[in-house]
Amino acid sequence: EAKSRGPGRYKVYDPSYGELANQRSLLLYDLRHAISQRQLSLVYQPQFCTDAQAITGVEVLVRWHHPQRGLVPPDQFIPLAEQHGLICQITDFVMQTGIRELLEHQLLYKHIPRVSFNVSATDFNGSGSCDRFIKNLAELPGDWSVIELELTESAALINLEGVKRVIEVLHDKGVQVSLDDFGTGYSSLNTLRLLPIKEVKIDQSFVQDITNNSQDAKLVRTILAMAKALHLRVVAEGVETHAQATYLKREGCEEFQGYLYARPMPVKNLVTFIENLNQRQRMQS
Ligand code: C2E
Ligand code: MG
Ligand code: MG
Ligand code: MG
Q1: Residues with Cβ within 5 Å of ion ligand 4?
Q2: Considering only CA atoms, which residue is closest to atom 37 of ligand 1?
Q3: Which atom of ligand 1 is nearest to the CA of 42?
Q4: How many angstroms does the Cα of residue 120 sit away from the middle of ligand 3?
């Protein structure tokens, strides 16, 4: 068929295309085994208040350590997992492991006000999805207001009915909802209107350029003003420089996440990190 469309169409059969497809299917094959082979683990990235003296929450991020490939970034395997029906398994693993690690370290449980998990649109598919979330959180005593689910706008859009149904049940049990990568989707305002959202996370692509792109700076200022009017919490993502932090603070942003403050880290390091933070606070008071 490609032949009949002339030589220009041979591009479709470019070996690099086949190679790419082949690589993806090999990655998918490996991903199917990653959970049972204990190749997945978690890292935690703290979020900070304005003076960076206290942690306001942590985001849970999954890591895949492949024995041959090394560290495979989530941006590569999460979309693959979403397309091939593996995401629920990953979400269940991440939530259950995150809650277990939190409860194993009472210091964390005592000092971390909020624990945020990333969830996908496909996590909300099907009638069993609500029970799955509830089961994943079951070990957690008391109300579940320490738990936050980070949802992307595109996720909410694809499956709004499913998302809405589950979110409303979880919200009644205290679970909070955050809109991740805010500003990158095209239904931000509609999503805000339809779901009980407590927080937005300004996408790092905006934060990156606020100090040298006046358009991005104005957009960020507008997001902050809107969030204030709607009584939404705002977390700035991907804050890497003091200049970015200074601008964000001046415009009223109150929570910060990024390499400037802390990189994502395994639970043991998080414990040490919080111990050090507490010690510094005690010395100052
Ligand atoms: P995200 O939820 O927007 O997470 C923030 C990403 O930014 C993380 O990348 C984090 O390591 C990175 N980051 C944090 N601070 C900085 C910074 O200062 N500079 C830069 N350049 N990057 C920073 P990561 O861990 O590679 O995750 C990428 C994406 O993969 C996440 O974006 C999220 O969409 C997805 N993801 C990660 N873990 C999970 C998970 O457990 N479940 C689901 N469904 N998705 C996940
Ligand atoms: Mg996130
Ligand atoms: Mg994000
Ligand atoms: Mg992202």
Answers
A1: 181
A2: 61
A3: 41
A4: 12
Q: How confident is the prediction along the chain (285 residues), in pLDDT tens digits per residue?
A: 344 444 554 455 566 778 888 888 999 999 999 989 999 999 999 999 999 999 999 999 999 999 999 999 999 999 999 999 999 999 999 999 999 999 999 999 999 999 999 999 889 988 899 999 999 999 999 899 999 999 987 777 788 888 999 999 999 999 999 999 998 876 678 888 889 999 999 999 999 999 999 999 999 999 999 999 999 999 999 999 999 999 999 999 999 999 999 999 999 999 999 999 999 989 888
> 27: CA distance to ligand 1 center in Å?
20
Residues with CB under 5 A from ligand 2 (ion): 118, 150, 180
Distances in Å between the Cα of 145 and the Cα atoms of 57, 149, 194, 253, 265 are 12, 11, 20, 22, 23
CA distance 254 to 48: 8
What is the ipTM, given to two decimal places? 0.98
d(CA 145, CA 116): 11
7: which strand partners? none
